[in-house]
Amino acid sequence: MKVVVFTGAGASIELGVPTMRPMIEEFRNHLQERRIAANVLAKLDQLMADKAYDIEHMIDDLDSLEKGLSAHDRWGEQILSPLKPEIDVVRPEAEWFIQHICERVDTGMAPMLWHPLLRQATHHKLVIATTNYDRSVEIAAARHGIELDDGFELFADKEWAPWKGFSTSAGIKMLKVHGSTDWYYATDTQGVYKLRHPMPIFGRVTVRLEGPTPLMLKSAAVLPSREKKIREPPYPELSSEFRINVLDCDVAVFVGTSLRDPDLRSVCADSFRKHPTFLVNRNIAGGVSVPPGVQVISQSASRFLTSTLPCALRTANPVSALEQAVTAKHWPAGILKDLHVALDKSADAPLRCGAVERLLASQVALEGNEVSALLRDPEPDVRLYALGLLPHSPDRQELTKVAEQVAAAASDGAFAAELKLLAELS
User: pTM for this one?
Assistant: First the structure.
């Protein structure tokens, strides 16, 4: 089965990357801390009184102001001229800030979020598309030795890799339709490169990479509100690849997005006319525009990506399993933090047990890899609490055997008694 998973900003919230509104709040504080553009900051405070105003709106306004200033200069008017120096500072500052904030993704939790899905590529053809700039998927894949086809050559022993386009390989295809924090343009040729050690570039600042053929690079990420201006490579190819794959799959899932962008909403609607299409959003009442026929799964992105989708893909009929999730209880809470604490052997046992208990209360279904690690944990209380995760796991039979081995090896009477009771109740 070919599965396309699209993720928006909501998929990275639990990894430490804020969505558009929290991002402008942080950017506002960033300007104040650096004592930058006091007049623009004062106006920003007024605009942010509207809770719907976010960093996408701000960038759109700044772009419009820049055009207005240019027109005024050409026509000899000076109405906005006093603001021009500050606007010239704030626009590149926003570009740097967005790249910077998306690089602070939690590298410990990224593999927990994405690996359960990535390992399904042994049984299904996966295409992951995203408008996010962060590298959480790439981090998870690299941590587990999984290869992604993201359109670039492999690094091998080089510091940078040039764009090559997409192949027909059977691996996981990764489509970053607005670019990434590690993508750059060569200033002379407009060639596209990916850096092994990415860095946010400020405004007009460029980076020189030494080598047989030195490169002068600038950022290639497409900022919010500028999607319609994508004309330079590789974005036309990425956009085409995204639409082709969405229309040529067996099931498509849109996760952590409000579908506010009309083009994305159109792709989602077109997808439904071809095959089963699902929208995963824990706050559908919050202004999400759902195309007719698209089925809604009211879950957090972390619950869906670590549990619901991987488990569905392991069934004989994944679409039917996802349809059951549509009618299931509403689960808005994220589970990534609890999963991280539960698996963290450096944390205190009571904290870890509390995390497992919350996972139990949410009836989350975890695959064998995570549950097995908890059953084999050196902490007796953690092992005991982990037994409660067995009934909901798709690997229950295998995990029961693991638990029996643990009970025999540890000579843990409480664990063995609980395991026996669990067997009797099943």
Answer: 0.91
> CA angle, corner 18, sides to 105 and 25, nearest 5?
135
DSSP one-letter code for 329: P
CA distance 224 to 129: 16
pLDDT at 16 > cutoff 60 = yes
Strand order in the sheet with 148-149: 148-149, 172-176, 125-130, 2-7, 251-255, 277-280, 295-297
Q: How many CB atoms lie within 10 A of CB 379?
A: 17
Size of the chain, expressed as the number of residues it contains: 426
Q: In whole angstroms, what is the distance from residue 10 CA to residue 280 CA?
A: 10
The residue with tokens 């047989």 is 212
Angle between helices 110-118 and 368-375 (to 10 degrees): 130
Q: Give the N- to C-terminal CA distance of the chain in Å, as an integer.
A: 32
Residue 359 CB contacts under 8 Å (≥ 6 apart), including other chains: 335, 338, 339, 342, 366, 389
What φ, ψ does residue 4 adopt, rounded to 5°? Answer: -105, 125
Extents of the domains making up the chain: 2-14+106-179+233-327, 18-102, 336-425
Taking all residues of the chain, what is their mean pLDDT, rounded to a whole number?
Answer: 90
Q: Angle CA(112)–CA(118)–CA(119) in degrees, nearest 5? A: 95
Mean pLDDT of 384-408: 94
CATH classification of 2-14+106-179+233-327 is 3.40.50.1220, yes or no? yes
- Residue 222: pLDDT over 90: no
Q: How far is CA 337 from CA 13, 24, 300, 306, 390, in A?
A: 11, 24, 12, 12, 20
- Residue 255, H or E segment: strand 251-255
Phi and psi torsions of 258, nearest 5°: -90, -5
CA dist 178 and 223 (Å) reads 7
The amino acid present at 26, given as its one-letter code, is E
- Show Cβ contacts of residue 239 under 8 Å, excluding neighbours closer than 6 positions: 177, 230
